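> example.struct
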């Protein structure tokens, strides 16, 4: 996953080698010596000066890798004997080099330790900032862990071969942020590519996440003086002057795609970049193997047997497909953690709003309530929504008092109210499905096209799975309507019906 590769947004006069997954993040590699005053350094180290850039050379990279690949470098620096090796598979784009992946170097059985990476070869905030209290201060205020790690690798990138992490950064550059499915995060897609996600709430989430990254970038200069060892190492390289926003964004997304969330460790070690970890490991939602912190190392214990040469897979947490796409650039068709969100809220103009809010709170719900709809459990989700929606339809004050005096969720009060609630829910799911520009049948036809470009393919996979969840919700709602005892009853009027988003 390339940390600093994409020069698409930057003048060709300062082409920088890549540094983060999920993009071609070209990073300015400044070779100027530390000036004696800040003003002078700003001129000497400006990223627009092509004389300060170390240009990427494909032939040189290949020769270097033949001499010493990532695993060889790790072995030379303390990696103990392990049971994995690096293999390569072709990229979907013939213009790009093949990507590496971690495979079993011998037959493995469940419970085997495949690899144990010593902490000296792991990048954490403890290493980046040199002070755990500073790490806590930064990451609980203006900068996230990902921003700190991205910035660290970007500055290391500027050192070129002088950096201890050069072989690791070179491997991330080779991956180009593509992960094992060779697709970068939609955070780095163009506007026209994001249109593949039209109708999906993921599109808005991508835009919101991009705005968040921009806010972090704008805060860099205000907190840089607090950055511990980094500030001491680069006291004159003001982050926003050293790296344009698009470079930082690409680095951020790259780190996001390969960071490991370690459990039961201090804050300063919680987020880690582990060579031979992601993006060289494949992800699978039904896998339970995780990189875990042990004494002095991060190790991987496999949860299934492997034949020599098979790719090693790991679990990426209970994430829905929308998160998998944004974070890692892939969608898992068999993801049992996949889900969508339905937001319902009580109408604030309702004269009985406060009473209804109190009734909702008694049943563990909020005035603005989100309902998680898990794949395969759509009917259960619909049944969970009904008591909340019924509450919004109560209009008679005496009926409301009865609700307040009772315990438990709101049960059906009348046939016409139940019909109104179900009709509103059905119409909501119909409208959400109508928001997609394609039908399920058209999605299936697109996915059957072998020439479909990878970004459109993964986006189509996502929206297809979302539509299946919504259709299952609609079917569950229609089934409940069909079970009503009297279909001749007209729905009750609802001047203050709850709002669904």
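> example.seq
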């Amino acid at each position: 996953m390339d940390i600093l590769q994409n020069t698409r947004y930057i003048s060709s006069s300062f082409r920088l080698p890549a540094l983060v997954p999920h993009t071609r993040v070209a990073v300015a590699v400044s070779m100027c010596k530390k000036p004696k005053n800040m003003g002078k350094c700003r001129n000497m180290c400006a990223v627009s000066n092509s004389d300060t850039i170390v240009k990427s050379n494909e032939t040189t990279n290949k020769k270097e890798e033949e001499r010493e690949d990532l695993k060889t470098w790790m072995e030379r620096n303390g990696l103990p004997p392990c049971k994995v090796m690096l293999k390569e598979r072709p990229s979907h784009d013939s213009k790009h080099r093949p990507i590496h992946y971690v495979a079993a170097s011998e037959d493995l059985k469940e419970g085997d330790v495949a690899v144990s990476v010593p902490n000296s070869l792991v990048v954490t905030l403890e290493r980046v900032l040199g002070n755990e209290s500073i790490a806590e201060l930064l990451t609980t205020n203006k900068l996230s862990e990902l921003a700190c790690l991205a910035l660290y690798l970007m500055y290391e990138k500027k050192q070129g071969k002088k950096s201890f992490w050069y072989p690791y950064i070179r491997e991330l550059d080779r991956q180009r942020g593509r992960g094992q499915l060779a697709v970068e995060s939609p955070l780095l897609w163009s506007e026209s590519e994001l249109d593949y996600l039209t109708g999906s709430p993921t599109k808005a989430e991508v835009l919101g996440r991009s705005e968040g990254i921009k806010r972090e970038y704008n805060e860099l200069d205000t907190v840089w003086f607090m950055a511990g060892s980094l500030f001491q190492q680069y006291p004159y390289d003001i982050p926003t002057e050293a790296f344009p926003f698009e470079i930082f964004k690409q680095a951020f997304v790259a780190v996001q795609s390969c960071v490991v969330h370690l459990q039961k460790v201090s804050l300063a070690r919680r987020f880690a970049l582990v060579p031979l970890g992601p993006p060289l490991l494949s992800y699978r939602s039904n896998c339970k193997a995780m990189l875990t912190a042990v004494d002095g190392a991060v190790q991987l214990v496999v949860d299934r047997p492997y034949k020599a040469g098979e790719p090693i897979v790991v679990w990426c947490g209970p994430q829905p497909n929308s998160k998998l796409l944004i974070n890692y650039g892939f969608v898992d068709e068999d993801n049992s953690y996949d889900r969508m969100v339905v937001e319902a809220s009580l109408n604030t103009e309702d004269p009985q709003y406060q009473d209804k809010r109190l009734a909702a709170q008694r049943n563990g719900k909020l005035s603005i309530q989100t309902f998680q709809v898990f794949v395969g459990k759509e009917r259960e989700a619909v049944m969970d929504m009904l008591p909340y929606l019924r509450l919004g339809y109560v209009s008679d004050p005496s009926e409301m008092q009865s609700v307040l005096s009772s315990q438990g969720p709101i049960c059906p009060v009348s046939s016409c109210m139940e019909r109104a609630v179900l009709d509103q829910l059905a119409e909501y799911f119909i409208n959400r499905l109508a928001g997609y520009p394609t039908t399920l049948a058209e999605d299936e036809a697109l996915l059957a096209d072998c020439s479909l470009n990878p970004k459109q393919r993964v986006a189509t996979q996502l929206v297809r799975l979302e539509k299946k969840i919504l259709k299952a919700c609609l079917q569950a709602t229609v089934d409940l309507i069909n079970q009503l005892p009297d279909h001749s009853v007209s729905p009750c009027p609802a001047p203050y019906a709850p709002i669904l988003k």
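> remarks
The longest strand covers residues 339-345.
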